[in-house]
Amino acid sequence: MAKTLAGRALLVGTIGALVAGFPPTAAPARCPVVNFSIPEGSSEMIMPNMSDYHSALLFSKVNQSSSSSCQRILNIKNCTLNSYLSQYTAHFSISECGLKVMNASRFLIGEYHLSYQLSEDCLQRISLDVTASAFKRARYGVLVAVPLVVVVVVVVMLIACC
Questions:
Q1: Is residue 21 part of a domain?
Q2: Minimal CA–CA distance to 121: which of 18, 33, 10, 30?
Q3: Has residue 158 been placed in a domain?
Q4: Can you say whether the dihedral through the CA atoms of 127, 133, 138, 140 is positive or negative?
């Protein structure tokens, strides 16, 4: 009987949240994780449509020294972005009512939480990795390929001579 009542309470709470116009909240342990890998210097949308959330949202970065504490970075309300920390201002923006990473740098690597501002109930965890840019990878590839070609040519010439 108690399990049935608890299940109904959960269902009613979820339906109530959907009727109120925002998704149901999740406990931090059950908060869904999305992984992003963005090339250094590039920009990418990480939360495409935030207009569905009618409450103020909080975007926080998990402290690397303690996974249980977060540093508040951004406040998002009505598709408007306000920054708590100025060093993040150049790296996040709202575009087409979605949260976008701009000019990705290694400084941004880490886990972020998107939550309701008042209750701090987690909506989404975002694991962000910033990889070497395509230009750096291409340049490194050329630096490795050129000496390799020279070595192959020298070996072929030595075999042909002898």
A1: no
A2: 30
A3: no
A4: negative
CATH, residue 133: 2.60.40.10
Which of 93, 136, 95, 91 lies closest to 110, judged by CA?
Answer: 91
Residue 85 lies in a domain: yes
How far, in Å, CA of 23 to CA of 31, rounded?
A: 12
Domain count, the chain: 1
Rg of the chain over Cα atoms, rounded to whole angstroms, equals 24
Is residue 160 a part of any domain in this protein?
A: no
* The model's pTM: 0.63
As given in the structure block, the two tokens for residue 1 are 């009987």
The boundaries of the domain holding residue 129 are 32-149
Q: What is the pLDDT of residue 53?
A: 74
SS3 string of the chain? CHHHHHHHHHHHHHHHHHHCCCCCCECHHHCCEEEEEEECCCCEEEECCCCCCCCCEEEEEECCCCCCCEEEEEEEECCEEEECCHHHCCCEEEECCEEEECCCCHHHCEEEEEEECCCCCEEEEEEEEEECCHHHHHHHHHHHHHHHHHHHHHHHHHHHHC
Residue 13 pLDDT greater than 60, yes or no: no
